[in-house]
Each structure stands twice: as C-alpha cells, then as structure tokens.
Amino acid sequence: MKAVVITEFGGPEVLKIRDYPTPEIYGDQVLIEVKAAGLNRADVSQREGKYPAPEGVPADILGLEVAGTIVKCGPDVVDFTVGDRVCALLAGGGYAEYVGVREGQCLPIPGDMSFAEAASLPETVFTVWSNVFQRGSLKPEETLLIHGGNSGIGITGIQIAHALGSKVIVTVGTDEKGKKCLELGADSYINYKTQNFETELQKEGVDVILDMIGGDYLSKNINILKPEGRLVHINSVGGSRVDLDIAKVMTKRLTITGSTLRSREYEFKKQLAKEIQQNVWPLVEAKKFKPVIFKTFSFDDAAEAHRSLEDGSHTGKIILVR
Length: 322
Description:
The protein is an alpha/beta fold. The protein has helices at residues 41-47, 115-119, 122-135, 152-163, 175-184, 197-201, 217-224, 246-252, 266-279, 281-285, 302-311; strands spanning 2-6, 15-19, 29-38, 65-73, 85-89, 98-102, 106-108, 143-147, 167-172, 188-191, 206-211, 225-233, 255-258, 293-298, 317-321. The strands form three sheets. Strands 3, 4, 5, 6, 7, 14 and 15 form a seven-stranded mixed β-sheet that branches. The longest helix has 14 residues, at 122-135. The protein is globular. The two termini are 13 Å apart.
C-alpha cells in the first residue's frame, strides 16, 4: 500500500509518499480502506519528534482518525461486516491506504455523511465526550467555557454542549473566529488578544472549563469557576508547570482534572464509542451537530495540509482525502 511516511523528524517537508506493508489483521480487528483521514495537532508534535507513537503503532505513519470502508474482518469481529462504512479512532497509522483497528474503536458513519466529514469526528468527539461530559460532568443549564473555540475540539464541544442544553462561552484569537463559533451555537466569545477572559467572566462565573493552554491560565480559570466547578485539562501548550492556590480550590470545592486519550486502554475506548453512538450520533442524525471542514487536501499534499494546520487561521478540521 501507499502511506504518508515521516522520513525524519522536522517540518512538513519530511512527509513523503512511500510503499508500506499492508497491515495484517487478526482477532477482533477490521481492515479499513481509508478514504479520508483527519489532521490533529498531535500529528505535528509526532512529526517533530516530540510525541512518540505508543508501542505497537507504526512510528512513522501519522493519523489518529480515519473514515473508509471495511474490506476484511478478523475471525472475532461481531459488530461489523465487509462493506460497512465506518469512522475509527486510532493510536496512529491513519495516513495510509489501509489501516487495521479493533472493532470497538469504530463507529458506523451516520446517514449519508461523506467520508471527509466522518473522518473529522473520532478524535474530537471521543475527546469532548470523555472530558466535558464524563470527567467534567457538564449538565443542561450549566455554563461551559472552551479555550480555543475555533479548534476541532472547540467546534465539537460547542455543538454538543449547545444541543444538550448548556450555555457555551469560547475564547478565540480573532473576532472572525468568534463569529463562526456563534454560528455553531456558542452563546458568546471572548477575543483573548483584546479582552481578558478572567475580567470578562469574573462576575458571571462558569461551571466547567475545557482548557488546552495551561500555564498562567490556571489561576484565571480557578478565579472564574463557580463553587463545585470543574476544570479539565487536555493539553498544556502554555506550560505544564504552574502555581496553584490550594486554598481557593478547597474553599470553592473545585475539581481539577485532565486526561490524554491516545494511550488509554482498549476497553475504555470501546465503552466510550458505545456512549458516543448512544448520545452523540442521534444529534448528528438530527442535524443538531454537523462536521465543520475547513479544507481538504489529497494524501499527496500532506505536507501542504500540515502547513495549513500550523498556520492556525482555520476554523474547523483539515482532512486528507483520496
């Protein structure tokens, strides 16, 4: 098969099309003929040598989410058959013609959704459901603050939380991005380049915060959380070493938590997929949640797709298609 391979650690130019062995499947795995693959910030980190693939995953092929058609099933597969259109969460290997994955990490593509749209869902939907609704326990009528509202995670969190009856506030870097978030269901936005989100939200307060920044955002987040508030970290691009006022955490009875998804055990991902199919897929089918694609690139243009991702001007997902 053909695959987009990291030829060495570095910039987008290190991504090249190469011949690669087609995965052998066994047990409860399915072999997916990949029609589209989503790009994520983790791909950039891995390409730069800062985020190694877990054991057992191709170290030189990026890609955490794909959509395509099942062309082969292992002997223990029970939920899917050859010909099924699926999207899947991966630990890597998605920038390729074929990928093998255990069936519990797959979901049927809803309705007539395109492969490109479906490929934009797994990484963000799994992450949002796990962190906002499981760890953050967001409830209807509560207020959710999402840092980075225009990101893939952000646009997913906005739509699901809005559809389930919560108020959503986002931080963004431009008013244009903020207005796009409003169109997706956000109730308001804060331009962090011209406004201080702590000052803006100090009086109102929020119940749950989804934070991918860390660093000096921590103290500001704690200050605006309501009593019993929940702060959930999914990244720390602003720094992972922080000062924490424990007294405020105790006084307000706050919960500070966080998670990573890629290295989680299979049974966790399988159960998460079941909850998503039960709780999120009906929103997709009812058109209350829709994928947002910023731009598509061919697999041959993976390097250019990475440049677009790193540019940071996009709202929505960037997808490789064949």
